Amino acid sequence: MLLMKLKFVTVGILISLSSVLGDTPANCTYEDIAGSWVFHLSAGNKNRNVNCSETFSTKNTIKISLIYPDIAIDEFNNRGFWTLIYNQGFEVVIAGRKYFGFSKYVGSSSFCDKIIGGWSHDIRGNDWACYNGQKSGAAITKTNVVKKDFGLKFSHRINSQEMVASINAAQNSWQAVRYPQFEGLRDEDFINLAGGPMSVIHSRPKPAPLTDAHKRLMGSLPESFDWRNVNGVNYVSPVRNQGGCGSCYAFAALAMDEARIRILTNNTQKPVFSPQDVVECSPYSQGCAGGFPYLISGKYAEDYGLVLEECNSYKGIDGICTTNSTCPRHYFTNYKYVGGYYGATNEAVILQALYEGGPLAVGFMVYSDFSNYKSGIYHHIDSISDNLGRFNPFEITNHAVLLVGWGVDKKTSEKYWIVKNSWGENWGIDGYFWIRRGTDECGFESLAVESTPVFTFNS
Ligand SMILES: *[C@@H]1O[C@H](CO)[C@@H](O)[C@H](O)[C@H]1NC(C)=O
Ligand SMILES: *[C@@H]1O[C@H](CO)[C@@H](O)[C@H](O)[C@H]1NC(C)=O
Ligand SMILES: *[C@@H]1O[C@H](CO)[C@@H](O)[C@H](O)[C@H]1NC(C)=O
Ligand SMILES: *[C@@H]1O[C@H](CO)[C@@H](O)[C@H](O)[C@H]1NC(C)=O
């Protein structure tokens, strides 16, 4: 316990949130993004470490129509794919190239008709260029509603005896406990634990409606399943501890990729990948301020590859990229939102993808009551968090975790998911938690992602 507490404290205080609190991520929805776009591309070359924040002159221009929810058509009538990526930006795959960029944002304002400094490369990753995108029509500028009193009024309430007692008195489904390692945690630290300020999703999708085919599919799957015990074999790598860095997205993404290698190799390969490499080196995330599994387990792992833990061991702080460049990189592909695109996810497709492909990285909304989870089937208790938790920052963060299985409580028939967290083994059920299934609890069934290991190195 003491060791873990020290870890949190040493890692926790080093984080400075002041630099990022001014910025909240973009809030661009399908309505804002679907339509006609023009992409202005720089000259291409083989350098995938191209810095797309720098200004460039236009070498090529392409016109693309994005049709809800996932069809892209270019000016030559090529058909391709696109998906919104959380509310941060979008990815297009068309005519042999991929395009990804964040929607422009400044402070709490989003400019959803603009992509600045996007990355484009051919499917094989041999020709990289930068692009700026402009949507036709009127400017789409939105300002997020930001709580002004964040960080002042609501501090020092996490982990209180009052809150834990109220949770346990209010219901029997799950049990809460105070954690010594969370003693004195400030809201800022908790935001980092639960996703980081840049992991906020301003307009979360609802799960896709369950069709009859989805219901038949669910009926065909076992009542319970756990990748930690498939006929006695465990395919999930050990629980880790992200400390005070908002790097859950990296832990969840890498844990999925680790488990999928174990599954595909029948446990003959058990890599543990480096989240510090992601924190320091990924252009597709914001270090300890947050990020998203789609862009790491998938896009970063396809474009740049992952390295083993020993190539850049975990420190839980931001920094320049210090990964040992002689280390081999491990690639993943076919990354996608479960169901195909952003908003296509639901309980049935998650069950199927989990059962057939392996663990999934999932993002869900964390409220203060969750931090004190000890055991049982978690569901958010509204009144308690609002009245006692006082954890009410500018927006609920999006915490990324690893979904490894499901079950049903024999007594109550309550359905649940089995989930690996990245808060160490001294939290929850040996580092895991159960959460209510079938009701999109805390948005758990709307945003799952998957990707597939590649066993050839492309560099
Ligand atoms: C990329 O370029 C921008 C603008 O010139 C600069 O601020 C930033 O530090 C550069 N990033 C890297 C990783 O070199
Ligand atoms: C994000 O955009 C949606 C749709 O335009 C809007 O309903 C929502 O209030 C916005 N969120 C914030 C935090 O401003
Ligand atoms: C997978 O590994 C187990 C345990 O080592 C072994 O018994 C089994 O035969 C292996 N399966 C395959 C298909 O190689
Ligand atoms: C990088 O890795 C190589 C080979 O694994 C090793 O010899 C070298 O000492 C490492 N460099 C650093 C700075 O750790």
UniProtKB/TrEMBL annotation:
SUPFAM superfamilies to which the protein is assigned, alphabetical: Cysteine proteinases (SSF54001), Dipeptidyl peptidase I (cathepsin C), exclusion domain (SSF75001)
Gene3D superfamilies linked to this entry: Cathepsin C, exclusion domain, Cysteine proteinases
SMART domains with a match to the protein in the record: Pept_C1
GO BP annotations listed: proteolysis
Pfam families to which the protein is assigned, alphabetical: CathepsinC_exc, Peptidase_C1
Family to which the UniProt record says this protein belongs: Belongs to the peptidase C1 family.
Oligomeric form and interacting partners: Tetramer of heterotrimers consisting of exclusion domain, heavy- and light chains.
Official protein name in the record: Dipeptidyl peptidase 1
Origin species: Candidula unifasciata
Lineage: Eukaryota, Metazoa, Spiralia, Lophotrochozoa, Mollusca
